[in-house]
Design a protein that fits this description.
Blueprint lengths: L2 H22 L7 E4 L2 E4 L10 H15 L2 H4 L1 E10 L2 E4 L3 E5 L17 E7 L6 H6 L5 H9 L6 E4 L4 E5 L6 E8 L6 E5 L6
């Protein structure tokens, strides 16, 4: 091995070690995203973001990653709201247990005047048929958008990590895919489509 290739190997090894230390040093509560290989903390509630889509994805990821075991068995619903310098989100409300209850999950939910969209997390139940149905925007979510005089969109995080957007009288569009890794590696989000509401 030549001296030049040896120094390149050491540099690459040092870069890999530093990258690993950077990712491993993240606290589990920071719930980092890996976007293009760069660690990025998921914004906390109250963070102001520039677009409805960014705020919806951050809200969905935050709701899923901070949910307790009981909350993960429930449907979670919240709002994307306009604030002075951009958009943020409300804390999610949860339904009763999704699979263990006898009835359908219900969340009593009212959109505020500052709300521009709704976000919904469908739970993973571990039961194939239920989880398969949870991969779609439900008829009740479509009715919710249709009944809203402003027809504000719904963003859905499915059990498999797909983020779907549904706007009035349109087909749902997959806007992103979220993949959870080990706790020290955070998660990754890939853009699937750009949308405009």
């Amino acid at each position: 091995m030549t001296r030049q290739s040896h120094s390149v190997s050491i540099s690459l090894l040092a870069l890999l070690v530093l990258s690993a230390i950077g990712c491993a040093g993240l606290q589990p509560t920071e719930r980092s995203l890996l976007l293009s290989g760069m660690p990025y903390p998921v914004p906390a509630p109250g963070a102001v973001l520039g677009s409805v889509e960014e705020a919806a994805i951050a809200a969905l990821v935050h709701a899923r990653t901070t949910a307790t075991r009981v909350e993960r068995e429930s449907m979670l619903v919240g709002s994307i709201v306009r604030v002075e310098n951009g958009l943020t989100w409300s804390e999610p409300q949860r339904s009763g247990s999704f699979f263990r209850s006898a009835g359908r999950p219900v969340v009593r939910y009212v959109l505020s005047g500052t709300a521009v969209a709704t976000y919904v997390v469908h739970p993973r139940t571990g039961h194939f048929e239920v989880d398969r149905l949870n991969e779609r925007i439900t008829p009740s979510e479509k009715r919710f958008v249709k009944a809203d005089p402003r027809h504000r969109p719904v963003f859905l995080l499915t059990p498999s990590g797909r983020v779907l957007s549904y706007a009035h009288d349109a087909e749902p569009v997959e806007v992103a895919a979220v993949r959870w890794g080990r706790a020290d590696r955070g998660l990754s989000i890939s853009r699937v489509a750009e949308i405009s509401h």
